[in-house]
Design a protein that fits this description.
The chain has no helices and eleven strands. By secondary structure, the protein is an all-beta fold.
Length: about 120
Amino acid sequence: QVQLVESGGGLVRPGGSLKLSCAASGRTVSSCNMAWYRQAPGKQRELVATMTRGGSQNYTDSVKGRFTISRDNANNTIYLQMNNLKPEDTAVYYCNARYWNLGLWDYWGQGTQVTVSS
């Protein structure tokens, strides 16, 4: 059983920065494919950033150059550094972990609210 707990969301002005954290238990994040998703009211859930077990990173076009996904193996935590935030980034952000072990396992955090507003 894997548990994911997000934190770090809040209210920030356009152009500001936030760093989201996702603390994992039950399995090492280095053994999982990790991702951040977001969902705004009335919108579909959107994939934001991914990190494979090997450390490869990918980003959706709208956040490239502004967001960075990273991993701290010692603390079993992944992060999403968000810079130059825009109102369009306002959403609930979710951490996701997936791994293969005689089938696909898929876990989600509870989400953390990010609001970008002046």
